[in-house]
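Purpose: get a first structural picture of the assembly so the mutagenesis plan has something to point at.
Setup: two entries, given in the order below. No constraints added.
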Amino acid sequence: MLQKKICMLGSFSVGKTSLVRRFVESIFSEAYQTSIGVKVDKKVVHVNDEDVTLVLWDIHGEDVYQKIRMSYLRGMSGYLLVIDGTRRQTLDDALALNERVIQEAGKVPAILVFNKSDLVDKWEIDSTRESELVAAGWNIVRTSAKTGDSVENVFSQLAAATLIE
Amino acid sequence: MADQAHRRAPTGQAQENPPGNNHAYEELRHLIIAPEQEELADIQERLDDRARRTQDVSSVVAEAIIMRRDQRGDPSLAQALAPTVQETLRESVRRDPHPLADALFPVMGPAIRKSISEALRGMLESFNEALEHSLSARGIKWRLEALRTGKPFAEIVLMHSLLFRVEQVFLIHRHTGLVLNHVVARSVATQDASMVAGMLSAIQQFVRDSFDSKNEESLDSLNVGELEVWIEEGPDAVLAAVIRGHAPADYRLTMKEALEEIQQRYSSALENFKGDATPFLSAEELLSRLLAAQHREPVQAKKPRAALAAIAIILLIIVGWAAYSTYLLWEWRQFLHAVRGQPGIVVISYDREGGRYHIQGFKDPLAPDPNALLTQAGLDPRDAEFDLAPYYSLDDAIVGQRARQLLRPPEGVTLTENHGELRVEGTASPQWISRVRERAPYIAGVTSVDTSHLQNSHLLQLNAPKSAIESAILVFPIGRAELEPGQENAIAQTGKQIRDIVAQAARLDEQTTVELTGHSDTTGIEGTNMLLSQERADAIRAILIRGGVQAANLRTRGVGTTQPLRPEDTEENRRLNRSVTFRITFTPVSSGN
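Result (structure tokens, whole complex):
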């Protein structure tokens, strides 16, 4: 069975952890995230007639107290860049983070995840901005950890992208 | 390539040389390179011709395989062939399972037997251990611990008796933190290996980053309660061993060596790893060797025989004890049965208290001592206590014994007791006989006394004179009541004998009665004969009285022809029937009173 290391990146409280909590296998406590800055989970997806095990490194959201340890990104096959659609700042932070990620780990498949799609009326990101991002080459998926919208889809898409690499 | 060179050459020449020289050059060229060209063409043909190529390879394929196989430690040949062999086997079975089954038949039986015996041995060994652990104080403590923690007992035993045990070994791809292979010791519960491997890598990174270690130094062990994780890092691979207890330092060396071997053997696979761990499946055997364990006490290779012997001994003891108890109980019941059957003893109840038996009941003074019976039965008299009230038994044997004790029968007399009737037989003195008659009815348990077969010993001395008198016959002539002449002496002698016996009997307190019986022959009329016979008896009586015999001792009777002494077939017999005969009886003087 194929395994792929996938990182989950994004600002603090964009819902990364909520995104994985309901959809992945987990054995470690979330306390690891605040202590060592990462928690490893697992998600098996079925892509192109084969099972792919995604080993998910759910990396602690960056804040003033804690920077992301770039060494955690080593060897990843792809990543999810998660933002909170209701907070524009999270998108800006994510894009800034993305620059550093590319510098550190090179170019690998990535998906920009607009989380909290259930709160779309409170969104701070307009469609113009979204189009610009798509034009810049981003693959954007809207998800809701709350309703489960497209969550499975995000993982499958990313897995498929890593297989093409 | 050769072809290209061939083609390119003439074009180059065509530009540089004049056409006239062309032919000569061609010839020269042909002379120089034709043989090589032919060879090249031949080689080309061999390469292009699939059939020939196949033929070439077929001639060396076996040697090639052998050569490759002999490069020890290189698994790639086996890896390359494995899928094909598997597929071949599968196909063969699919087509017709029989040839393969036939081929495997000789090995299947032994393999199955071996596996069964292994399983049995394992079971016996664990039984052995369980036996050992459950019988000791330590075992009980561990059992309590198992109850408290909810862990299986076996795990607790293992935890305590192990010095160390390597429970899991992870082979991790260093760059990605993905698990390449993972082996687990028997009966160890594990978490998902891919997540654990990932987290281990994360922790490695964390430590390395946080403490700014130089030269790529890294964490080489973690301690978690009773578990230790030993980590050994290579350039591309990481080995992590999860150890319960404390492994010896040289285990680190073992890990290093294993890692080096892996790095070497899988160098290209490690470098090109893209998430497919299949090439590392073959590392399983190498990793399994790292699953070492050492017990606190050298676990002696306990032979199942030891367990069997222990069981056998325990069983023997149990069976022996049970048999002994049963025997004791049986012995006791036998004794009780004997006591109950003993005349003169009545058992009302018995019970057992503190290992001793208590028996309540009644006992005749004449009954045997129950303690003696106890000893006879092989039991210890200290094991039983008797509480027997005295009573008079009416049991025949006891009544007989009581009668014997009271009457003290002389030799020659037997006393038999039967349901209250005391039968006295034999010969005894008249004094004793009269005492029996007097006392016997008063003996407890005797309701009647039978002395009819008891004989007076004194009368024995009168037997000789009595039979002398009773053998005398006095004869008479036909139709007359006077004695035939010539019998005067005979009658006189009989008279004297009678006087003597009367006197002798009188001294023994016996009254003598002599009965004179007159007989007649069949001559004449029966009525007359009756009278005649009476007259004959009376005649003798008169003579005897005259001779001095007391009339009180004499009785007469005539029987006529009714009791002839002889059949009347001769004159002599007829004569004997005309006679008087004597019968003597004695009666005790006292009873006559």
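The beta strands of chain A are 2-10, 38-47, 50-59, 78-84, 110-115, 140-142.
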